[in-house]
Write a structure and sequence with these properties.
388 residues; alpha/beta; 7-stranded mixed β-sheet; 3-stranded antiparallel β-sheet; 43% helix
């Protein structure tokens, strides 16, 4: 007995390797400050937890729910998009409930592409995009996200052959790992590019709530014509600290939404109704908890940037997400620098090369520990005398 070729062809799980290194260090009794993870450190707001508790006590929620999600949650998601972004959404035909955003992102190439088709992915980018390409048995090529272009793609740099062959493109703003954000004019350009070249756009909006300096991240769907050629994928994991709850949704083009619903008809029965009801509460009730969370991350960002500057580490402040994208010192690759910090300073960071070729020369730092621990981490790094 052996594994299928599809499983054999799956990429090595980048984060699993990072977790193993950190776990081994912790098991040795070391006090590791883990800045390499993307797991929110704050609890889910209490009113959302109470909504789940109430729903869990109702025997009606112990049964299978509708395969395609509760109308209550889809209507809440539509109301959320109307309130937050001024976007009108048909809850029945333009929203698909997801078992976490990651599941939808991995399913989409299977839904929309045939063997050997080409998809375009950002570099650096979220490593699990590659999982969908492997499972769909499709080809992928990457486009660079460079600092000099604000970590936005340069569509003029995409070759004629790529434009003709590609059927699907993934984007992600606020961006993981760079922390860059996109403005409305960029998304307008994206719609024109997609329509001209007949390419479907998937915008991963996982960090949609997290923008700094009073700049609210723009939704791809705010731009006219976006629903004609694409969808946006939203998760409650980051906005409401619900990472372990595994609930999100896709919004946009009805044909793509139907494709997601169809594949999930075959993969799942239904998401626990209690979680769906609590998610609806999260989306529709007062959003003060979200504003407080964003302020918490912004304070941490400012603390980190100030501490780095103090030791001579010249870094740029992220505009969104809860990550900072920091350059490695001269003479180190991303992997070498990350390994050194873990070995000599007990500080874990994610090496940039794990996010793609153009991630080399950077490390990703999560703003997911307290300000005191961020300062302590930078103080530990300072003792290595790398920036003097």
């Amino acid at each position: 007995m052996e594994l299928s070729n599809r499983l054999k062809n799956l990429p090595v799980q980048f984060f699993a390797n990072l977790v193993n290194k950190v776990t081994n260090a912790v098991n040795e009794g070391r006090d590791v400050i883990n800045l390499g993870q993307g797991n929110p450190d704050q609890p889910t707001p209490s009113h959302i937890v109470k909504a789940l508790q109430t729903a869990a006590e109702d025997p009606q929620n112990h049964k299978y729910s509708s395969f395609r999600g509760l109308a209550e949650l889809k209507e809440a998601a539509a109301l959320f998009y109307k309130r937050q972004y001024g976007v009108e959404v048909d809850p029945e035909n333009e929203i698909a409930i997801l078992f976490g955003a990651k599941s939808g992102l991995v399913e989409l190439p299977i839904c929309l592409l045939n063997d050997g088709d080409l998809m375009l992915l950002p570099d650096p980018g979220y490593p699990d995009y590659l999982s969908g390409a492997a499972l769909a048995n499709v080809e992928y090529e990457t486009f660079p996200l460079l600092k000099e272009n604000g970590f936005l793609p340069n569509y003029e740099g995409i070759s004629v052959e790529q434009r003709e062959r590609a059927k699907l493109m993934f984007l992600n703003y606020p961006n993981n790992p760079t922390g860059a954000i996109a403005n409305r004019s960029f998304f307008e350009e994206t719609v024109r590019f997609a329509k001209t070249n007949n390419i479907t756009i998937v915008h991963d909006f996982a960090y949609g709530a997290i923008g700094y300096d009073r700049k609210k991240p723009v939704s791809f769907l705010e731009v006219e014509g976006s629903k004609d050629i694409g969808i946006e994928v939203y998760t409650l994991s980051k906005t409401y600290n619900m990472a372990g709850w595994r609930v999100g949704f896709a919004v946009g083009n009805p044909l793509i939404i139907e494709a997601l619903n169809l594949i999930q008809d075959h993969l799942y029965c239904s998401l626990f109704p209690g979680i769906q009801k609590a998610a609806a509460i999260a989306l529709t009730e007062d959003q003060e908890c979200v504003r407080e969370l964003v302020q918490l991350y912004e304070n941490r960002r400012n603390t980190l940037i100030k501490a780095c500057s103090k030791i001579g580490w010249q870094v740029d402040a992220p505009a969104g997400s809860f990550f900072a994208w920091l350059p490695t010192p001269k003479g180190f690759t991303s992997e070498e620098f990350a390994d050194l910090l873990l070995e000599k300073a007990d500080v874990a960071v994610a090496p940039g090369n794990g996010f793609g070729k153009y991630g080399e020369g950077y490390v990703r730092v999560g703003l997911l520990v307290s300000e005191d621990r961020l300062i302590e981490a930078v103080d530990r790094i300072d003792k290595l005398k790398l920036f003097r």
